[in-house]
Amino acid sequence: MTLPWRSRAARSLYSALLVLAQPLYLLRLWWRGRAEPLYREAIGERLGHYRDAPSSGWLWLHAVSLGETRAAAALIVALRERRPGLRLLLTHSTATGRAAGQELLREGDRQTWLPFDTPGAVKRFLAQFSPAIGVLMETEVWPNLLPAAQARGVPLVLANARLSERSRRRGERFDAILRPAVEALSLALAQSEADAQRLRSAGAPEVRVCGNLKYDLAPDATLLARGQAWRAALARPVLLFAVSREGEEAPLLGAWTRVRRTLASPPLLVIVPRHPQRFDEVAALMRASGLTLARRSDWGELPGAAALAADAWLGDSMREMPLYYGLAQVALLGGSFAPLGGQNLIEAAACGCPVVMGPHTFNFAEAAELAGAAGAATRVEGIEAGLAQALALLADAQRLAEASQRSRAFAAEHRGAAARMAAQVDALWTEVQTRVPSPS
Length: 440
Known about the structure:
Blueprint: H1 5-32, E1 59-62, H2 66-82, E2 88-92, H3 95-101, E3 110-113, H4 119-129, E4 133-137, H5 145-151, E5 156-161, H6 165-172, H7 175-183, E6 187-190, H8 193-202, E7 207-209, H9 221-234, E8 238-244, H10 249-260, E9 268-273, H11 279-288, E10 293-295, H12 305-309, E11 312-314, H13 321-327, E12 330-333, H14 346-350, E13 355-357, H15 365-374, E14 377-379, H16 383-394, H17 397-413, H18 417-435
Parallel strand pairs: 1-2, 1-4, 2-3, 4-5, 5-6, 6-7, 8-9, 8-12, 9-11, 10-11, 12-13, 13-14
Protein backbone atom coordinates (compact mmCIF):
# COMPACT_ATOMS: atom_id res chain seq x y z
CA MET A 1 0.00 0.00 0.00
CA THR A 2 1.50 3.30 -1.11
CA LEU A 3 0.54 6.09 1.26
CA PRO A 4 0.09 9.71 0.24
CA TRP A 5 2.82 11.98 1.51
CA ARG A 6 0.63 13.46 4.29
CA SER A 7 -0.01 10.00 5.73
CA ARG A 8 3.65 9.01 5.46
CA ALA A 9 4.72 12.20 7.18
CA ALA A 10 2.07 11.87 9.89
CA ARG A 11 3.03 8.28 10.65
CA SER A 12 6.74 9.16 10.73
CA LEU A 13 6.07 11.95 13.22
CA TYR A 14 3.78 9.70 15.28
CA SER A 15 6.43 6.96 15.38
CA ALA A 16 9.20 9.38 16.36
CA LEU A 17 7.11 10.79 19.21
CA LEU A 18 6.31 7.29 20.49
CA VAL A 19 9.98 6.30 20.48
CA LEU A 20 10.91 9.47 22.38
CA ALA A 21 8.10 8.92 24.91
CA GLN A 22 8.92 5.26 25.46
CA PRO A 23 11.10 5.75 28.58
CA LEU A 24 8.39 7.86 30.21
CA TYR A 25 5.76 5.26 29.42
CA LEU A 26 7.91 2.50 30.91
CA LEU A 27 8.32 4.57 34.06
CA ARG A 28 4.56 5.03 34.19
CA LEU A 29 4.03 1.28 33.98
CA TRP A 30 6.51 0.75 36.80
CA TRP A 31 4.70 3.37 38.87
CA ARG A 32 1.33 1.74 38.28
CA GLY A 33 2.91 -1.53 39.31
CA ARG A 34 3.00 -0.32 42.91
CA ALA A 35 -0.75 -0.89 43.17
CA GLU A 36 -1.08 -3.48 40.38
CA PRO A 37 2.09 -5.64 40.32
CA LEU A 38 1.17 -7.30 37.03
CA TYR A 39 2.24 -4.11 35.24
CA ARG A 40 5.84 -4.91 36.21
CA GLU A 41 5.80 -8.39 34.71
CA ALA A 42 7.33 -9.20 31.31
CA ILE A 43 8.04 -5.57 30.47
CA GLY A 44 10.27 -6.71 27.62
CA GLU A 45 7.15 -7.87 25.79
CA ARG A 46 6.03 -4.24 25.59
CA LEU A 47 9.10 -3.65 23.41
CA GLY A 48 8.63 -6.78 21.32
CA HIS A 49 11.32 -8.87 23.02
CA TYR A 50 10.63 -12.55 23.83
CA ARG A 51 12.60 -15.42 25.33
CA ASP A 52 11.13 -18.33 23.41
CA ALA A 53 11.63 -19.30 19.77
CA PRO A 54 9.46 -17.76 17.04
CA SER A 55 6.21 -19.58 16.22
CA SER A 56 3.32 -19.30 13.79
CA GLY A 57 -0.28 -20.24 13.05
CA TRP A 58 -1.92 -18.42 15.96
CA LEU A 59 -5.37 -16.96 16.15
CA TRP A 60 -4.32 -13.65 17.66
CA LEU A 61 -6.96 -11.83 19.69
CA HIS A 62 -6.28 -8.46 21.31
CA ALA A 63 -8.46 -7.36 24.23
CA VAL A 64 -7.05 -4.18 25.69
CA SER A 65 -8.60 -4.25 29.17
CA LEU A 66 -11.09 -6.00 31.44
CA GLY A 67 -14.30 -5.12 29.59
CA GLU A 68 -12.95 -6.18 26.21
CA THR A 69 -11.50 -9.38 27.66
CA ARG A 70 -14.80 -10.35 29.23
CA ALA A 71 -16.63 -9.68 25.96
CA ALA A 72 -14.01 -11.68 24.07
CA ALA A 73 -14.73 -14.72 26.25
CA ALA A 74 -18.00 -15.44 24.45
CA LEU A 75 -16.35 -15.05 21.05
CA ILE A 76 -13.47 -17.35 22.00
CA VAL A 77 -15.91 -20.06 23.11
CA ALA A 78 -17.78 -19.78 19.81
CA LEU A 79 -14.52 -19.89 17.82
CA ARG A 80 -13.31 -22.98 19.68
CA GLU A 81 -16.60 -24.70 18.83
CA ARG A 82 -15.85 -24.10 15.16
CA ARG A 83 -12.12 -24.83 15.40
CA PRO A 84 -11.45 -27.09 18.39
CA GLY A 85 -7.72 -27.16 17.74
CA LEU A 86 -7.12 -23.44 17.44
CA ARG A 87 -4.09 -22.00 19.22
CA LEU A 88 -4.96 -18.71 20.88
CA LEU A 89 -2.52 -15.83 21.21
CA LEU A 90 -4.17 -13.43 23.65
CA THR A 91 -2.77 -9.91 24.05
CA HIS A 92 -3.68 -7.08 26.42
CA SER A 93 -2.55 -3.61 27.45
CA THR A 94 -3.77 -3.44 31.07
CA ALA A 95 -3.23 -5.51 34.18
CA THR A 96 -6.95 -6.12 34.71
CA GLY A 97 -7.28 -7.40 31.15
CA ARG A 98 -4.32 -9.74 31.48
CA ALA A 99 -5.54 -11.12 34.82
CA ALA A 100 -8.99 -11.84 33.39
CA GLY A 101 -7.52 -13.32 30.23
CA GLN A 102 -5.66 -16.02 32.13
CA GLU A 103 -8.95 -17.86 32.65
CA LEU A 104 -9.55 -18.02 28.89
CA LEU A 105 -6.35 -19.93 28.10
CA ARG A 106 -6.07 -23.62 27.33
CA GLU A 107 -3.05 -25.84 26.93
CA GLY A 108 -1.02 -24.63 23.98
CA ASP A 109 -2.33 -21.06 24.15
CA ARG A 110 -0.15 -18.03 24.82
CA GLN A 111 -0.67 -14.70 26.54
CA THR A 112 1.49 -11.62 26.13
CA TRP A 113 1.40 -7.83 26.27
CA LEU A 114 0.60 -5.99 23.08
CA PRO A 115 3.80 -4.14 22.18
CA PHE A 116 4.08 -0.38 21.97
CA ASP A 117 3.03 0.85 18.54
CA THR A 118 6.56 1.69 17.47
CA PRO A 119 7.75 0.29 14.13
CA GLY A 120 10.46 -1.84 15.74
CA ALA A 121 8.29 -3.35 18.48
CA VAL A 122 5.48 -4.11 16.04
CA LYS A 123 7.86 -5.73 13.57
CA ARG A 124 9.37 -7.95 16.30
CA PHE A 125 5.93 -8.96 17.59
CA LEU A 126 4.69 -10.03 14.16
CA ALA A 127 7.92 -11.85 13.37
CA GLN A 128 7.78 -13.68 16.71
CA PHE A 129 4.22 -15.01 16.35
CA SER A 130 3.32 -14.83 12.64
CA PRO A 131 -0.44 -14.94 13.36
CA ALA A 132 -2.71 -16.69 10.88
CA ILE A 133 -5.42 -14.13 11.61
CA GLY A 134 -5.86 -11.21 14.00
CA VAL A 135 -9.00 -10.22 15.90
CA LEU A 136 -8.98 -6.81 17.62
CA MET A 137 -11.75 -5.99 20.07
CA GLU A 138 -13.99 -2.92 19.80
CA THR A 139 -11.87 0.17 19.09
CA GLU A 140 -8.26 -0.99 18.81
CA VAL A 141 -6.89 0.77 15.74
CA TRP A 142 -3.11 1.30 15.83
CA PRO A 143 -1.39 3.30 13.05
CA ASN A 144 1.75 1.13 12.87
CA LEU A 145 0.46 -2.27 13.95
CA LEU A 146 -2.41 -2.66 11.50
CA PRO A 147 -0.60 -1.69 8.28
CA ALA A 148 2.38 -3.82 9.33
CA ALA A 149 0.13 -6.84 9.86
CA GLN A 150 -1.54 -6.23 6.51
CA ALA A 151 1.86 -6.06 4.82
CA ARG A 152 2.69 -9.49 6.27
CA GLY A 153 -0.55 -10.92 4.90
CA VAL A 154 -2.31 -11.22 8.28
CA PRO A 155 -6.08 -10.68 7.83
CA LEU A 156 -7.43 -8.40 10.56
CA VAL A 157 -10.93 -8.32 12.03
CA LEU A 158 -12.24 -5.56 14.29
CA ALA A 159 -14.79 -7.50 16.35
CA ASN A 160 -17.60 -6.05 18.45
CA ALA A 161 -16.61 -2.84 16.73
CA ARG A 162 -18.00 0.45 17.93
CA LEU A 163 -17.30 4.05 17.00
CA SER A 164 -19.26 6.82 18.67
CA GLU A 165 -20.12 10.02 16.84
CA ARG A 166 -17.90 11.88 19.29
CA SER A 167 -14.93 9.59 18.62
CA ARG A 168 -15.47 9.82 14.87
CA ARG A 169 -15.41 13.63 14.99
CA ARG A 170 -12.23 13.57 17.04
CA GLY A 171 -10.67 11.02 14.73
CA GLU A 172 -11.26 13.22 11.69
CA ARG A 173 -8.55 15.53 12.98
CA PHE A 174 -6.06 12.65 12.67
CA ASP A 175 -7.43 11.15 9.49
CA ALA A 176 -4.05 11.21 7.79
CA ILE A 177 -2.69 8.70 10.28
CA LEU A 178 -5.82 6.77 11.32
CA ARG A 179 -7.44 6.18 7.93
CA PRO A 180 -4.63 3.97 6.55
CA ALA A 181 -4.85 1.87 9.73
CA VAL A 182 -8.64 1.46 9.42
CA GLU A 183 -8.24 0.65 5.72
CA ALA A 184 -5.88 -2.17 6.70
CA LEU A 185 -8.76 -4.06 8.30
CA SER A 186 -10.06 -7.02 6.33
CA LEU A 187 -13.40 -6.93 8.13
CA ALA A 188 -15.19 -4.90 10.81
CA LEU A 189 -18.01 -6.57 12.75
CA ALA A 190 -20.04 -3.69 14.11
CA GLN A 191 -22.33 -3.62 17.12
CA SER A 192 -24.98 -1.52 15.37
CA GLU A 193 -25.85 -0.01 12.00
CA ALA A 194 -24.90 3.44 13.34
CA ASP A 195 -21.46 2.11 14.31
CA ALA A 196 -21.19 0.49 10.88
CA GLN A 197 -21.90 3.75 9.07
CA ARG A 198 -19.27 5.61 11.08
CA LEU A 199 -16.71 2.84 10.53
CA ARG A 200 -17.29 2.99 6.78
CA SER A 201 -16.83 6.75 6.81
CA ALA A 202 -13.58 6.25 8.74
CA GLY A 203 -12.26 4.01 5.97
CA ALA A 204 -13.21 0.43 6.88
CA PRO A 205 -13.48 -1.41 3.55
CA GLU A 206 -15.87 -4.19 4.66
CA VAL A 207 -18.33 -3.76 7.55
CA ARG A 208 -21.08 -6.08 8.75
CA VAL A 209 -23.46 -5.66 11.67
CA CYS A 210 -23.42 -8.56 14.14
CA GLY A 211 -24.67 -7.11 17.44
CA ASN A 212 -22.96 -6.74 20.79
CA LEU A 213 -20.98 -9.58 22.38
CA LYS A 214 -21.74 -8.31 25.86
CA TYR A 215 -25.29 -9.65 25.57
CA ASP A 216 -23.82 -13.15 25.30
CA LEU A 217 -22.09 -12.97 28.67
CA ALA A 218 -23.89 -15.11 31.24
CA PRO A 219 -23.50 -13.76 34.79
CA ASP A 220 -21.61 -16.02 37.18
CA ALA A 221 -24.46 -17.88 38.88
CA THR A 222 -22.47 -18.43 42.10
CA LEU A 223 -21.65 -14.75 42.48
CA LEU A 224 -25.20 -13.72 41.62
CA ALA A 225 -26.64 -16.08 44.24
CA ARG A 226 -24.15 -14.87 46.84
CA GLY A 227 -25.17 -11.27 46.31
CA GLN A 228 -28.83 -12.17 46.61
CA ALA A 229 -28.12 -14.04 49.86
CA TRP A 230 -26.31 -11.01 51.27
CA ARG A 231 -29.27 -8.81 50.41
CA ALA A 232 -31.58 -11.19 52.29
CA ALA A 233 -29.25 -11.04 55.31
CA LEU A 234 -29.31 -7.24 55.24
CA ALA A 235 -33.12 -7.09 55.33
CA ARG A 236 -33.09 -3.56 53.85
CA PRO A 237 -33.01 -2.09 50.34
CA VAL A 238 -29.67 -1.79 48.53
CA LEU A 239 -28.69 1.02 46.14
CA LEU A 240 -25.60 0.46 43.98
CA PHE A 241 -23.38 3.01 42.27
CA ALA A 242 -21.91 0.67 39.66
CA VAL A 243 -18.48 1.15 38.09
CA SER A 244 -18.11 4.74 39.24
CA ARG A 245 -15.47 7.00 37.76
CA GLU A 246 -13.29 9.82 39.08
CA GLY A 247 -15.31 12.96 39.75
CA GLU A 248 -18.60 11.12 40.20
CA GLU A 249 -18.43 9.82 43.78
CA ALA A 250 -18.11 13.21 45.52
CA PRO A 251 -21.30 14.68 43.94
CA LEU A 252 -23.15 11.46 44.68
CA LEU A 253 -22.05 11.43 48.31
CA GLY A 254 -23.00 15.10 48.73
CA ALA A 255 -26.49 14.43 47.36
CA TRP A 256 -26.77 11.20 49.36
CA THR A 257 -25.90 13.00 52.61
CA ARG A 258 -28.70 15.50 52.05
CA VAL A 259 -31.27 12.91 50.99
CA ARG A 260 -30.37 10.36 53.65
CA ARG A 261 -31.38 12.72 56.46
CA THR A 262 -34.94 12.73 55.15
CA LEU A 263 -35.32 8.92 55.12
CA ALA A 264 -36.63 6.94 58.07
CA SER A 265 -34.81 3.76 56.96
CA PRO A 266 -32.06 4.60 54.45
CA PRO A 267 -30.98 1.90 52.01
CA LEU A 268 -27.47 0.50 52.10
CA LEU A 269 -25.33 2.46 49.65
CA VAL A 270 -22.75 0.36 47.77
CA ILE A 271 -20.11 2.03 45.58
CA VAL A 272 -17.99 -0.05 43.20
CA PRO A 273 -15.27 2.11 41.55
CA ARG A 274 -14.13 1.30 38.03
CA HIS A 275 -10.40 1.39 38.78
CA PRO A 276 -8.79 -0.56 41.64
CA GLN A 277 -6.11 2.08 42.21
CA ARG A 278 -8.91 4.41 43.40
CA PHE A 279 -10.32 2.11 46.09
CA ASP A 280 -8.58 3.88 48.99
CA GLU A 281 -9.43 7.31 47.59
CA VAL A 282 -13.13 6.46 47.36
CA ALA A 283 -13.08 4.90 50.83
CA ALA A 284 -11.73 8.18 52.22
CA LEU A 285 -14.47 10.14 50.43
CA MET A 286 -17.15 7.87 51.89
CA ARG A 287 -15.81 8.19 55.43
CA ALA A 288 -15.43 11.96 55.05
CA SER A 289 -19.14 12.18 54.21
CA GLY A 290 -19.94 10.77 57.65
CA LEU A 291 -20.88 7.23 56.61
CA THR A 292 -19.87 4.16 58.58
CA LEU A 293 -18.07 2.08 55.98
CA ALA A 294 -17.42 -1.61 55.39
CA ARG A 295 -15.07 -2.77 52.65
CA ARG A 296 -15.74 -5.94 50.67
CA SER A 297 -12.07 -6.91 50.96
CA ASP A 298 -12.48 -7.28 54.73
CA TRP A 299 -14.52 -10.49 54.53
CA GLY A 300 -14.82 -13.65 52.48
CA GLU A 301 -18.04 -15.62 51.95
CA LEU A 302 -20.21 -13.74 54.44
CA PRO A 303 -20.20 -10.15 55.75
CA GLY A 304 -19.92 -9.86 59.53
CA ALA A 305 -22.26 -8.06 61.90
CA ALA A 306 -20.37 -4.77 61.59
CA ALA A 307 -20.67 -4.85 57.79
CA LEU A 308 -24.38 -5.69 57.94
CA ALA A 309 -24.94 -2.69 60.23
CA ALA A 310 -22.79 -0.23 58.22
CA ASP A 311 -24.24 2.74 56.33
CA ALA A 312 -22.31 1.97 53.17
CA TRP A 313 -20.11 -0.65 51.51
CA LEU A 314 -17.15 -0.16 49.22
CA GLY A 315 -16.94 -2.83 46.53
CA ASP A 316 -13.15 -3.02 46.49
CA SER A 317 -12.88 -6.36 44.71
CA MET A 318 -12.30 -7.29 41.10
CA ARG A 319 -14.49 -9.36 38.78
CA GLU A 320 -17.38 -9.60 41.19
CA MET A 321 -19.92 -7.40 39.44
CA PRO A 322 -22.59 -10.16 39.30
CA LEU A 323 -22.34 -10.29 43.09
CA TYR A 324 -22.98 -6.55 43.38
CA TYR A 325 -25.82 -6.62 40.85
CA GLY A 326 -27.37 -9.55 42.73
CA LEU A 327 -27.00 -7.63 45.98
CA ALA A 328 -28.59 -4.43 44.64
CA GLN A 329 -32.17 -3.81 43.61
CA VAL A 330 -31.34 -0.79 41.47
CA ALA A 331 -28.07 0.65 40.15
CA LEU A 332 -26.87 4.11 39.22
CA LEU A 333 -24.67 3.73 36.12
CA GLY A 334 -21.11 4.94 36.57
CA GLY A 335 -19.46 7.01 33.87
CA SER A 336 -22.82 8.43 32.80
CA PHE A 337 -23.10 11.25 35.35
CA ALA A 338 -19.87 12.86 34.13
CA PRO A 339 -19.00 13.28 30.43
CA LEU A 340 -17.21 9.91 30.29
CA GLY A 341 -19.51 7.94 28.02
CA GLY A 342 -21.03 5.56 30.54
CA GLN A 343 -20.26 1.95 31.42
CA ASN A 344 -21.71 -1.31 30.20
CA LEU A 345 -25.31 -1.65 31.42
CA ILE A 346 -25.93 -5.02 29.75
CA GLU A 347 -24.43 -7.01 32.62
CA ALA A 348 -26.75 -5.29 35.08
CA ALA A 349 -29.74 -6.16 32.90
CA ALA A 350 -28.68 -9.81 32.64
CA CYS A 351 -28.59 -9.93 36.44
CA GLY A 352 -32.06 -8.43 36.68
CA CYS A 353 -30.88 -5.14 38.16
CA PRO A 354 -32.63 -2.09 36.65
CA VAL A 355 -30.40 0.88 35.88
CA VAL A 356 -30.72 4.63 36.32
CA MET A 357 -28.33 6.36 33.93
CA GLY A 358 -27.18 9.91 33.53
CA PRO A 359 -27.01 11.93 30.30
CA HIS A 360 -23.59 10.70 29.11
CA THR A 361 -23.84 7.25 27.50
CA PHE A 362 -22.14 7.83 24.15
CA ASN A 363 -19.85 4.79 24.56
CA PHE A 364 -22.90 2.52 24.80
CA ALA A 365 -25.40 4.65 22.91
CA GLU A 366 -27.40 1.87 21.25
CA ALA A 367 -27.53 -0.35 24.35
CA ALA A 368 -28.65 2.61 26.47
CA GLU A 369 -31.37 3.54 23.97
CA LEU A 370 -32.62 -0.06 23.68
CA ALA A 371 -32.56 -0.55 27.45
CA GLY A 372 -34.57 2.61 27.96
CA ALA A 373 -37.14 1.56 25.37
CA ALA A 374 -37.42 -1.89 27.00
CA GLY A 375 -37.96 -0.47 30.48
CA ALA A 376 -34.66 -1.89 31.75
CA ALA A 377 -33.13 1.57 32.27
CA THR A 378 -34.24 5.12 32.99
CA ARG A 379 -32.37 8.24 31.91
CA VAL A 380 -32.09 11.32 34.14
CA GLU A 381 -30.27 14.63 33.81
CA GLY A 382 -28.07 14.52 36.90
CA ILE A 383 -27.09 12.73 40.08
CA GLU A 384 -29.79 14.25 42.30
CA ALA A 385 -32.49 13.26 39.83
CA GLY A 386 -30.86 9.85 39.62
CA LEU A 387 -31.06 9.39 43.38
CA ALA A 388 -34.69 10.47 43.43
CA GLN A 389 -35.55 8.04 40.63
CA ALA A 390 -33.69 5.15 42.30
CA LEU A 391 -35.31 5.77 45.68
CA ALA A 392 -38.77 5.96 44.11
CA LEU A 393 -38.14 2.60 42.45
CA LEU A 394 -36.93 1.06 45.72
CA ALA A 395 -40.10 2.26 47.45
CA ASP A 396 -42.43 0.60 44.92
CA ALA A 397 -42.12 -3.20 45.16
CA GLN A 398 -44.38 -3.97 42.20
CA ARG A 399 -42.70 -1.48 39.89
CA LEU A 400 -39.29 -2.74 41.01
CA ALA A 401 -40.22 -6.38 40.25
CA GLU A 402 -41.52 -5.42 36.81
CA ALA A 403 -38.35 -3.45 36.01
CA SER A 404 -36.21 -6.42 37.08
CA GLN A 405 -38.17 -8.76 34.83
CA ARG A 406 -37.93 -6.35 31.89
CA SER A 407 -34.17 -6.11 32.43
CA ARG A 408 -33.68 -9.87 32.10
CA ALA A 409 -35.94 -10.02 29.05
CA PHE A 410 -34.04 -7.16 27.39
CA ALA A 411 -30.67 -8.91 27.89
CA ALA A 412 -31.99 -12.24 26.59
CA GLU A 413 -33.57 -10.70 23.49
CA HIS A 414 -30.28 -9.46 22.02
CA ARG A 415 -28.07 -12.53 22.44
CA GLY A 416 -26.39 -14.32 19.53
CA ALA A 417 -23.59 -11.93 18.49
CA ALA A 418 -20.85 -14.41 19.47
CA ALA A 419 -22.08 -17.09 17.05
CA ARG A 420 -22.51 -14.55 14.25
CA MET A 421 -19.03 -13.07 14.73
CA ALA A 422 -17.38 -16.48 15.03
CA ALA A 423 -18.96 -17.50 11.73
CA GLN A 424 -17.57 -14.38 10.03
CA VAL A 425 -14.06 -14.83 11.48
CA ASP A 426 -14.05 -18.52 10.58
CA ALA A 427 -15.16 -17.83 7.01
CA LEU A 428 -12.42 -15.22 6.53
CA TRP A 429 -9.82 -17.57 8.01
CA THR A 430 -10.94 -20.38 5.71
CA GLU A 431 -10.83 -18.04 2.71
CA VAL A 432 -7.28 -16.98 3.54
CA GLN A 433 -6.15 -20.58 4.05
CA THR A 434 -7.46 -21.58 0.63
CA ARG A 435 -5.38 -18.82 -0.95
CA VAL A 436 -2.14 -20.15 0.55
CA PRO A 437 -0.64 -22.92 -1.59
CA SER A 438 -0.05 -26.16 0.30
CA PRO A 439 3.62 -27.16 0.69
CA SER A 440 4.58 -29.77 -1.88
